Amino acid sequence: xxxxxxxxxxxxxxxxxxxxxxxxxxxxxxxxxxxxxxxxxxxxxxxxxxxxxxxxxxxxxxxxxxxxxxxxxxxxxxxxxxxxxxxxxxxxxxxxxxxxxxxxxxxxxxxxxxxxxxxxxxxxxxxxxxxxxxxxxxxxxxxxxxxxxxxxxxxxxxxxxxxxxxxxxxxxxxxxxxxxxxxxxxxxxxxxxxxxxxxxxxxxxxxxxxxxxxxxxxxxxxxxxxxxxxxxxxxxxxxxxxxxxxxxxxxxxxxxxxxxxxxxxxxxxxxxxxxxxxxxxxxxxxxxxxxxxxxxxxxxxxxxxxxxxxxxxxxxxxxxxx
Length: 322
What we know:
Order of helices and strands: HEHEEEEHEEEEHEEEEHEEEH
Number of helices: 6
Largest sheet: 8 strands, mixed
Number of strands: 16
Helix content: 10-25%
Structural class: alpha+beta
Distance between the termini: 54 Å
Strand content: 25-35%
């Protein structure tokens, strides 16, 4: 009866959201910050564009890896908790983050990852897209996809620009077969595309890169257990504060329990959980990562949010040097 009531409420919400611009960033949990930093900067060639701390737990780093400017749609971030055990993959999570490269570049990446001892390398075709799947340092599921739409800037300069990662291609959710997350994505402006087995593709048309969400509907199975290697949340981009407010009001009308606006220094954010327990964020593109340090040296020094600046001496002693 409650589901029927919820459906009737949602049916009354006629205006789909048109402000979502695709993926802004994906934030995950790590264990060893040194291994995490090395993998994403040295192995994958991303730039560490920000070295800061968790807003709610300043004794833990918050590391941001992206293209040289920290462009929304290229940003993968981590909370590295040195004592964390490995999480368990399952239902109710962002199951895989996928990067984009230009066509014909997977041979380079397969050779490079093998040279660095990366495990579980697998070449597959997903929705007619050549894909290389692999496992990150904490067991996280990652992939690289060849695409003609890889129009975002290349990652850091020590990998040739023609080979470099170019932001996100997509993300995949793993949910129960009864999940209504597809309805939510449709309301958020994503359009249903083709289906491949148990996986349905959704895409923001005419948006460009980082605009694809695949939903794997799984009949049965264990729920995901969040820990090292798990995605903590996925953030969707909007143009500015006004767009974020429109999205917030629309989501509330849809029935989502949305937080107030939180200032995260480099963007403003609102949060809500899906029926499946996946944490969604909607983040503004501005002001960006060069607000508190020069673009040329971004990510080198420890930057602290205003409320934690008094802790600098203690944090610089306690945090593991990178």
